[in-house]
Description:
The protein is 45% helix and 17% strand. It is an alpha/beta fold. β1 (27-31), α2 (35-49) and β2 (53-57) form a beta-alpha-beta unit. It is globular and about 55 Å long. The model is unreliable at 1-23 (pLDDT under 50). This is ABC transporter substrate-binding protein.
Amino acid sequence: MRNYVYITFVLVLSVVLSACSNNDEKVTLYSHNTQEEMQTFVDALKADTGIEAEFLTMSSEEIWSRIKAEKPNVGASAQWGMLHSLAFLADQEDLLEPYDSPEWEDVPEQFKDPEGKWYGWSFWFNILAVNTDLLEELGLDKPTSWEDLIDPQYKGEIVMPNPGNSGTGFLIVSTLIQLLGEEEAWAYLTELDKNVALYTQSGTQPAQMAAQGEFAISITWDQAAFDRADEGYPIEAIVPEEGVGFDLDVAWIYKDAKNMEQAKKVIDYIGSEKGMQAAGKHRSMVTKPGVEGAIDFEPNLIDYDAVWAAENRDRIMDKWSETFDK
């Protein structure tokens, strides 16, 4: 009987140690990508490289708050998807591990940190996603500009992400400030607020709500609009004629990452031909020359200054909260 118990204990211990060992081989990632998008990326990663990844997705602001709370021992080995401006702040917090990845050699210099602390793999930009059926039903004009959105006819029919929670929302506000100047932008946002029925927690949620007919107009990000249109919803994506801000979506390795070698392989994969092709199926534009994104037109992008956005982020967020988060 004792021998049987001993053998059983050894077998159980072996299973537990094996499970722990397998878990240690997995790389843990944080991301502001959607759950569905990130799942396709890690599935492609495993299929192409054999690397298994676990991931946690939240909005940019939620992830950033978590990172700051966990530092210096961040709970992930790498970040796959984050605002460019937050890469600068993460560097200031000494959270990034330099890595010179050979897969990124042909990516233009403006899309990567010279010390290899962060790598920009795709672009995304603000866009309007309007429900054309609902516009017709309500007798509303189709908006084509930022200026149109403050027309009183749209009162209660606009939904947009809250800049306090969403990177998409922050991009909207910082874009308008760079387009219009500080004073005029805050005056514009005050007028826009009169027409906004709801500020959401995520940048994708407005597009989904417009697609489902809850609101006629959403301010969102490009792929959220294009995906709903592809799914058959009566959604039309509109780039405001004044232009839109864009963000370089970045990846990085955390300093003293638990699985450093696996994290480096993830960065290699993101910058590889296969990694960029996988991204190009879900993102409008990717940064590797010769790899096409998901759209076949050139959006009207402003000369968005991500460094300025990072330097002024706290001030902008504070003013937004004081003015609109009531």
